[in-house]
Amino acid sequence: MKVSKETSAQHRDDLLRAASRLFRDRGFDKVGVAEITAAAGLTHGAFYTHFKSKDELCAEAISQAARHSAKRAAGLGDWSTYVDAYLSPRHVRDRGNGCPYAALGGDVPRESAPVKAAFSTALDRAIDSVARMADGGQGAPSRDRAIAALAIMVGALTLARSTTDTDLRDEILATARAHVIGDSAP
Predict the structure, then answer these.
(1) Cα–Cα distance between 28 and 31 in angstroms, integer?
(2) H-type alpha helices, 3-88
(3) Smallest Cα–Cα separation from 108: which of 98, 95, 121?
(4) 3-state SS class at 31
(5) pLDDT tens for residues 131-158?
(6) Of 35, 73, 107, 167, which alpha carbon lies 20 to 30 A from 58's?
(7) Looking at residues 171-181, what average pLDDT do you find?
């Protein structure tokens, strides 16, 4: 059955959204093509209409997740609000819809060159975005300070997700927030 260009584009977007969420939630190796197509409400065959391989889907899903994260961050307004949302228990619990850098950063080094390249490009853009947001329009954005802030936040989120102790989780998040927003803020 022939589908319209609009329907085809929607199917492709559905596959990317499902893959992006599942990859962030469970990692690249723990999610198969059949599971992605089922989550998108499509058949296994639909996948190969839109993607040559799972690696191609992984790379595009990273790009989509990064764009979605950047859009959500821009909608939060100021730097402090963004940091509060990023370093929140809610973000810790919602890995599938959260930051792709914290969710997939440990997996990417073992992936193919196209997946690494997509992640690298997205990360570079995120650093620029964090620099602009942290600057608040007050002057030239500082990439090195943005890198430090992003590294602290991604690391804190990763550590907070790694503990079952909610008191320790909250301590990690609060300490990171104090360093990013406090005297050592970008």
Answers:
(1) 6
(2) 5-26, 33-39, 44-50, 54-75, 79-86
(3) 121
(4) coil
(5) 988 876 565 568 899 999 999 999 999 9
(6) 73
(7) 96
